[in-house]
Amino acid sequence: MDQVVLESLRIASIISFTFREAVADVEYKGYLIPKGWKVMPLFRNIHHNPEFFDQPQKFDPSRFEVSPKPNTFMPFGTGTHACPGNELAKLEILIMLHHLVNNFRWEIVGSESGVQYGPFPVPHKGLPVRVWRESL
């Protein structure tokens, strides 16, 4: 179940980007980023990069059977700037999934039209589902 949570966070990270300051001059693809300049890493671009994740648009929890390369999976940021509640957030997701899977059944009522990425990932055109309580 942990791998499902990690893959969900990779596909639809709630943090789209962050702001950082270059601590040294850096050359990237022929461009100089001077020390002190503000940079904005886009986590979605990193998490959907085929150099880091094979078939990045495919939902594949098995990709987390091995740890990803450093700085390729950062749904809660990284280093000293990482979200301090990241483990609590993952635990809450696991608890919610546990109850959803064990106590309810559901089916998608509308069409699956993918994810729309704006400031936050949301189902494109919504995602109506029918949920019912499982008989005990």
Automatic annotation (TrEMBL):
InterPro entries: Cyt_P450, Cyt_P450_CS, Cyt_P450_E_grp-I, Cyt_P450_sf. The keyword Membrane applies. The keyword Secreted does not apply. GO terms for molecular function: (+)-abscisic acid 8'-hydroxylase activity; heme binding; iron ion binding. GO terms for biological process: sterol metabolic process. Keywords: Heme, Iron, Membrane, Metal-binding, Monooxygenase, Oxidoreductase, Transmembrane, Transmembrane helix. It is a single-pass membrane protein. Its cofactor is heme. Heme binds at C83. It holds the Pfam family p450. It is found in: Membrane. PROSITE patterns: CYTOCHROME_P450. It comes from the Eukaryota. PANTHER family: ABSCISIC ACID 8'-HYDROXYLASE 4, CYTOCHROME P450 26. Belongs to the cytochrome P450 family. This is Uncharacterized protein. It comes from Cannabis sativa (Hemp). The lineage of its organism: Eukaryota, Viridiplantae, Streptophyta, Embryophyta, Tracheophyta.
